[in-house]
Amino acid sequence: MKRKARQHYTPEFKAQAIELMETGKPAAELAQELCLSSNLLYRWKQDAQSAQVGSACPRAGGEGALADDLRALRRENAHLRQENDILKKAAVILGTRSQPSSAK
Question: What is the per-residue pLDDT for 7?
Fold first, then answer.
């Protein structure tokens, strides 16, 4: 059985495909026209978005620090919410147990 050679696409081709997706053209239709998988188009779009969001990409002065601070605050907020949920569950569990009576 022969293996199919892996296709390599240029960054320009990927960018054009993503632009067409963002104009509102359905991914399945676009993928069929370009002889691609719709999953591949979604992956390219996700990769492009994550490359723009990462702190390593060049930004205007001060913008990178603000984005990093915001990211850190969101992480801390999520952690605190998780701790709060755990404490709420523990309070329910401890509050519903009957206390052993010491008086006989």
Answer: 79
